[in-house]
Amino acid sequence: MIVIDIDKAKAITKDRLRAERTPLLAALNVAFQRALESGSDTAAIVAEKQRLRDITSLVDSCTTTDELKALSCAAPVVELVAEPTPEPTPEPVAEPAPEGEA
Hints:
With 102 residues, the chain is mainly α.
C-alpha cells in the first residue's frame, strides 16, 4: 500500500506554485510600471499580485492530494494596461452648396 506524506506533498505543491507564479509576477510588474507611467488605475494589478503572493498559504488548509493538485496560479486574467485606442474621428462631409450660390 502506498502512503502519501501530506506534509511533503504540501511542500512540493508550494514549490510548484512558486515556480508557476514567478513569470506571472514579472509580467504584472511590467504592467504595473506601465500603468503608473500612463496614469492608469493599478488596483486590479495590485489585487492580482497579492492573490499570487497568497496562493501558497492556501496549501496549508488542504487535506488531500486532490485539493493540492487543484491549486493553480491560473486565475482571473487581469487585463494588462493597453494603450488607449483613440476614437476614430469622422471625416467632415462637404454639403453641396444650394443652387444659385457659387
